[in-house]
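To the structural biology subgroup,

Please find below the input and predicted structure for Ig-like domain-containing protein, which we are adding to the shared reference set this quarter. The sequence is reproduced verbatim from the submission form. If anyone notices a discrepancy with their own records, reply to this email rather than editing the shared folder directly, so we keep one authoritative version.
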Amino acid sequence: MFINTYILTNMVISMRSFRVSFCCPAAQEGTSYTMYGTWTLDEKDSLDVSWRKNNIPVEFCESHIRCPKNKNVKYYIIHDRHSQTSYISKMKILNVSLEDEGLHVLKYVGMNSPLYLDIMRCLLKVYAKGYHSTCSYSSNTARVYIACIAKGVYPSSSCVIINENQAFNGHTRNDMSTATGNTGKYFNTMCNIILELSNLTANKDVYNVTVNLYPNFTNTDEDHQYGTRINLQIHKERPKLILENCPSEVYEGSEVTCVCKDVSAHPEPVVWYSGSSIVSIETKNKINFTATSKTKVNYTCQTNTLADFPVVNIVYTLKILALFTPMNGQKVDASCS
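Predicted structure (tokenized):
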């Protein structure tokens, strides 16, 4: 709802100083929207008023403001008197559409003025929230990956992710919507962002964030008020470590290979440890060694997260079978672990 109030005691002189365009709150497609103009003047003064869009009359009212309520399919217009010298005019757009964007003006003609001058001006912007908005996410111990889409929006949109008092801008892409029946003006907006969980305010393993998909009117924070807000409760996903191609027992002298993997949605890097010492990290998630009687048989695979969260690990235990030749010359297997 938008209201401009002017006191017209010296009509021609005072109104000329207000001949500027005013930005009024944006209107949402499919809703109703009301504009007001109020003024004061002596009853003896003659005044004709008219609502216009882009300088084309929407409705005309004459004879000292004394005109009946006017209603048509698109607009509902009322001119009324508040007091002996105070008047109001309301124009209600019954069902806002993108075609309603433009300059809406309430004009008047006074007794001493041959020209129409302005009582109020509203440069109306219209936005469409679209017919489908949704977000999904996945996370691990360090990061959260958020992906959102809003279909059939207008104008092109941006997104911001809010956590407590923090705001993070997402990466957006706007494509023209190809939905059946649209006018070719609508967009499908896709928003993606990767956040470090260490930057968010957490409640144990749960993070509450809000995604706001908002139209680009002014490219400032003022546009946020017109956005579609989607609340997400993000549960931190822990790594899921598995061992792959790792033998449980080998003979002494055998070459051993063991692979450790994080099979969660967004895998974390891993590091192999032998006791408290890091095994060569050049092979990343794989260890290679020759089994000997002196080989340490317990290795630990551990996530190497960048964030300050508890790590996840898995232990690889290998049984080494020794070969030796007794006095009778027959080879015998023996376990050294």
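Summary notes: The longest helix spans residues 11-16. DSSP finds one helix and 29 strands in the chain.

Regards,
Lab coordination
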